[in-house]
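Entry:
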Amino acid sequence: MSNERVRVRGVSIYRPFIYGNTATVLTPKERDASQAPDHTHRWTVAVRSAASLPDSDQVGGADDLSYFIKRVTFKLHDTYANPSRNVDKPPFELTETGWGEFEIQIRITFVPESGEKAISFYHHLKLHPWTESGEPEIPPLDVAMKAGPVHAWQYDEIVFHDPYQNFLTLLTQHPPTPMPKTKRKPVPYHLANPASFTTSKGGVPEFNQEMEKEELERLEEARKSVIAEQDKWRAILIEKEKELERLLKEVGGQA
C-alpha cells in the first residue's frame, strides 16, 4: 500500500468555516421586473472560510476552500425549481429571491484524497432581523430597505481525525488565514439595537478569535452537560437493573 493512503494515527487537524446567509430587500423596481412579483428579498446562502478579508464587506471568505471541498449542495424549499443545487467550484454560495424563511439543508462533499464521507447540516434562512425576545421582527419593506442587509452566520469547525498522509499534506500546505484577535468591524445595527429599525446603519459582522473562544467554551459546556445527563441515566438504569434482579429473586423464592 502506498504511504499516501496510510492514515496518520493520533493526528487531528481542523478547518474553521462559517455557513449562513445575507439578505437584502428588493427595490420596487426589482420587484416589478421580477418573474415572481411576490418575492420581497434577495438572499445568498454560502459556505465560507471563517476569516474575512480586511477591507471587504463580505462576511468570511478570505480563503479558497476548494483544496478540501469538492462540492456544496444546497437543498432549498420544494417550491423552488430544481431545489437541490450543486456548487462545484468556489465561491460555494447560491443567490436566489423569495418572500419566506425556511430550512436549507447544506451538504459538503470532500475531495477524493480525503477519503472522508460527506457531511450534512441545516441553516434557517433568515430574511428579517431578530428582536430581543429571540423572534424575527418584520418591519415595513421601506424601513427594512433603509436598514441594510440582514446577516445570519454560524461558526463551526470541520475536524479530520487520522487523516490519510496525502490529505494531511494537502491540508498543511493550505493553512487557514488567522482570524483577528478582536473585531475590526461593528456588528450590524439591527443586532446592536434590536428594538429600533430607524437608527443609523452599522457595519458588517466579522468572526474573530474571541468569538471562536466563546464558541469553543459553549461547545465544551454542552459536552459536559451531555456527559452529566448520560451519567445520570446510567445510574438510574443500574438501580432499575438491581431492583429487577431483587424482584426476580423474590419471585423465584416464592415459587
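Residues 192-202 have pLDDT under 50 and may be disordered.
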